[in-house]
Design a protein that fits this description.
The chain is α/β, with parallel strands linked by helices. Helices cover about 45% and strands about 10% of the residues. The protein binds Fe4 H S5 (Q46) and zinc ion (2 copies). One zinc ion (ZN) binds next to α12. The site of one zinc ion has 9 residues, from α12.
């Protein structure tokens, strides 16, 4: 297979685009396309102060690399979850090394030292998600990302979700006809209420294998292992099904996603994307936007209340912006 641009040996063949490229041209093409999507979906401009959520994985580190190459002002945010020592230590080390090598600023929030318990401990004590960590992990990451973006005066929070991630969620939500979730699934989500960060996913149209190829060909050192708790997850199951479909019909994943975005633009969902934000008000305890009524506060505060009763953790409201943005 030859590169379509120069005729050299291709490093990657993208069947959904009928496009094969050599290393040099692929490494040019991917940031160019990213720039195209940033503009197409009006994600942000070079005036924005961007916060990139980094996990040490190929998608988030590649995204940070691309934004840096494209001349955006982007700092990183690493959240230490305290999940199996080796996994968490290694993902933090790789994120820090990546930032240091490029002179970029990485904000680090370790959940255990900041709030008082690791994600697995939090899952066990709160019993949210029946003791399995993904539910408390997702809630904590969303809360901390939003708060860090707000407290650090970032104008947009970006995540490294790729097309495979987006399509797996889309399929799950479509099979459940989850109208509210479908209305909110988009390359960019406006900050519809004060205290809520604007969010964008610049990699949402790249296949996972393209992001892996980018990281490898750029020489980015990333953590290869998935989080141990991801094994056997519903998302992975959907990804497998979609990959089987893609094998037989190249381009089916991309088509599913693009058609969904088009249908949405044409008004498929009567519900506006920020319908869920209509009931939001500041949490009585920490001030973050929440839909939970009453003085017990948002789900994050209520979760830590339980931990505090057992092992004396700090309340989210006691964690000041300066603690949160330690480095
Ligand atoms: S939610 Fe669950 Fe992930 Fe958290 S505990 Fe691991 S698998 S990291 S995306
Ligand atoms: Zn070439
Ligand atoms: Zn709260």
């Amino acid at each position: 297979m030859k590169c379509k641009k120069c005729g050299e040996t291709a490093a990657l063949n993208m069947r959904q685009h009928k496009l094969a490229l050599c290393q040099e041209h692929f490494l040019e093409w991917l940031p160019e396309q990213t720039q195209r999507f940033i503009e197409k979906y009006k994600m942000f401009t070079r005036e924005d102060k961007i916060l990139v959520a980094v996990s040490g994985g190929k998608d988030s580190l590649s995204l940070w690399d691309i934004l840096h190459r494209l001349g955006y002002q982007a700092d990183g945010l690493y959240i230490g979850l305290g999940i199996e020592q080796d996994y968490s230590d290694e993902s933090r080390r790789l994120s820090e090394e990546f930032a240091a090598a490029r002179g970029l600023k990485l904000n680090v929030v370790e959940i255990e030292s900041t709030y008082g318990a690791t994600i697995p401990e939090l899952a066990e004590i709160s019993n949210r998600g029946h003791g399995k960590p993904c539910s408390v992990c997702g809630l904590s990451k969303r809360y901390i990302m939003n708060r860090a973006a707000h407290d650090g005066d970032y104008t947009v929070l970006v995540t490294g979700h790729n097309l495979d991630d987006e399509v797996a969620v889309l399929m799950q939500n479509t099979l459940n006809w989850a109208g509210g979730y479908l209305a909110r699934q988009a390359p960019v989500l406006e900050a519809s209420r004060p205290g809520l960060a604007r969010k964008a996913k610049p990699l949402c149209r790249f296949y996972e294998r393209e992001m892996a190829a980018y990281a490898i060909l750029r020489g980015i050192d990333y953590i290869y292992d998935e989080c141990p708790h991801a094994l056997g997850s519903t998302t992975l199951w959907y990804k497998e099904i979609l990959n089987n479909m893609e094998e037989k019909r190249p381009g089916v994943k991309l088509q599913f996603y693009i058609s969904f975005l088009q249908a949405k633009e044409e008004g498929l969902f009567a519900q506006p994307a920020d319908a869920g934000a209509a009931n939001l008000h500041p949490c009585d305890q920490c001030g973050q936007p929440t839909s939970a009524p009453g003085p017990e506060g948002c789900s994050f505060c209520r979760m830590w209340d339980k931990v505090r009763a057992v092992k004396g953790a700090r309340l989210p409201a006691e964690v000041l912006a300066t603690n949160l943005m330690q480095i």
